[in-house]
Amino acid sequence: MTDHGGFRYRLPVLALALAAMIASAGPAAAERTPAMFETGESKQQFPSLLVFPDIAGNVSIMLHCASQIEPSGKMKDTFCVIRNNGEVVFGAAVQKAAKKARLTPASIDGKGQKVYLQFRIEFIKEGDSKTIHIYSNTGDAENVEAYGNDHVAAQRVIGKEPWMNVCPGRAQFGITARAHVSVEGVASNVSLHHGYGIVPTGTCQQSIIRTIESSAFTPAMSGNEPVPSAFVEPFGN
Hints:
The protein has about 240 residues and is α+β, with helices and mostly antiparallel strands. The protein has 4 helices and 16 strands. The protein has one domain. Strands 4, 5, 8, 9, 10 and 13 form a 6-stranded antiparallel β-sheet that branches. The chain has a 3-stranded antiparallel β-sheet with strand order 3-6-7, with no helix packed on it. The longest helix is centred in the middle third of the chain and has 13 residues. The protein is globular. The relative contact order is 0.21.
């Protein structure tokens, strides 16, 4: 459980992102580019700053993480799900790198956007060999089956967030929203799945659906092409 600068999330279980383009939400084409880990400043690149923890023995760990990416490219409120004590040191390494990193920010029609980025980081140590793989997606089975592990997931632009005005502030709850995001960056077919805590009121649930439906998105990318995809995001406190 974490508080993302006023955004309450419990994150579920988020190949470097490559260049991405386009989508149209109206008569004129709108260029939509997701946040990307690679930047022109090598010293500020998240992959360069991420250091494999000094541990004994072989290990294979996949962390599921999320971050708010500011229009400046700064990573804010980065969080990884920690399932056991052995993963604590890896989560700390991610947070340490995130504090200094700058990403290529998401943009729509050339204007920087604040987006919710979900990603995964795989740490593998075999003998003296250490490797780190970064995947710009949640590992959702539907998307991985269609586009492989290296696709870039759709990213939601953080806006007014209607759900925060009506959903519980203290009573613990967790809901996962699942939607379809088109190549134009439009969400539809939103469904909610209860995860933990109380079952929120219908008003709260409708506000979560409204948040998803009213948000702008950068579409998922497979290679350099926008593709339709499933989008998953946790809401809660």
